[in-house]
């Protein structure tokens, strides 16, 4: 026979293990906060935009086919931007000690809404270095694409700039602690029901009747020692010296 659980039993279980759920949730939030503020390295982001155009002679207008060709070229340019052909000169110009692969992992390239605008985003623990890498990648790409593909159709729309008070994009302590709170609550509730499931002791008449499958005819209430009134009985017995009273 399938066992069912009522809303009242769920509420009783949560109420019974409420302290455990709170402790786990608070611990999860505290751990997430400590890791976010003291262990994770803050990362800063810089971004630059470039525009991809088809080279045309003066006075010649762009057609719809030209625009479609430019958009298709963007996928090729995205690969070229993060290739060693571009990143090696960037590494040399900035005199970076990190590898080309490490630089590639810092860069994210994409187009905005399938337009001819390509953005280059760079993340680094140093905000000034993030700006330098983003601008250098855009400059080197604009310069070398002429030799690589024999085209001159790239212009820089906006260069990355270092703000007076840069703020990190990661980690986000508030978001991390909010996620930790949700996870902690879920873990606490799950552990509460697990402990309740593993507890096989019978505590109520309903549990006894449900487990044994027989009706309960009567119960004996627990008696507190404070409510028990002890009556003393006095017995009298005779001995050689006289009568002696005994209390029991």
TrEMBL record:
Domain Polysaccharide chain length determinant N-terminal: 3-94
Residue ranges annotated for the Tyrosine-protein kinase G-rich domain, each copy included: 142-195
Alphabetical UniProt keywords: Cell membrane, Membrane, Transmembrane, Transmembrane helix
Keyword Membrane part of the UniProt annotation: yes
Superkingdom of origin organism: Bacteria
Membrane topology, record value: Multi-pass membrane protein
Location(s) in or outside the cell: Cell membrane
Entry's transmembrane regions: 20-40, 177-198
Pfam families named in the record: GNVR, Wzz
InterPro entries (UniProt xref): Bact_polysacc_biosynth/exp, GNVR, LPS_length_determ_N
Family assignment from sequence similarity: Belongs to the CpsC/CapA family.
Protein name: Capsular polysaccharide biosynthesis protein
């Amino acid at each position: 026979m399938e066992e069912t659980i009522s809303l009242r039993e769920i509420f009783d279980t949560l109420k019974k293990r409420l302290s455990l759920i709170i402790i786990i949730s608070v611990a999860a939030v505290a751990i997430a906060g400590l890791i976010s503020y003291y262990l994770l390295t803050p990362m800063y982001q810089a971004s630059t935009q470039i525009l991809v155009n088809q080279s045309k002679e003066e006075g010649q207008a762009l057609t719809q086919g030209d625009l479609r060709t430019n958009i298709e070229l963007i996928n090729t340019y995205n690969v070229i931007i993060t290739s060693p052909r571009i990143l090696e000169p960037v590494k040399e110009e900035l005199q970076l000690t990190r590898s080309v692969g490490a630089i590639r992992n810092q860069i994210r390239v994409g187009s905005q809404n399938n337009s001819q605008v390509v953005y280059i985003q760079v993340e680094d623990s140093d905000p000034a270095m993030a700006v330098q890498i983003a601008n250098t990648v855009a400059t080197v790409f604009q310069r070398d694409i002429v030799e690589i593909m024999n085209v001159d159709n790239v212009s820089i729309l906006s260069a990355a700039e270092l703000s007076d008070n840069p703020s990190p994009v990661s980690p986000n302590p508030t978001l991390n602690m909010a996620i930790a709170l949700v996870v902690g609550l879920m873990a606490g509730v799950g552990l509460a029901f697990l402990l309740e499931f593993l507890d096989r002791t019978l505590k109520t008449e309903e549990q006894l009747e449900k487990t044994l499958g027989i009706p309960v005819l009567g119960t004996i209430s627990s008696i507190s020692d404070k409510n028990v009134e002890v009556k003393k009985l006095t017995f009298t017995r005779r001995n050689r010296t006289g009568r002696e009273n005994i209390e029991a």
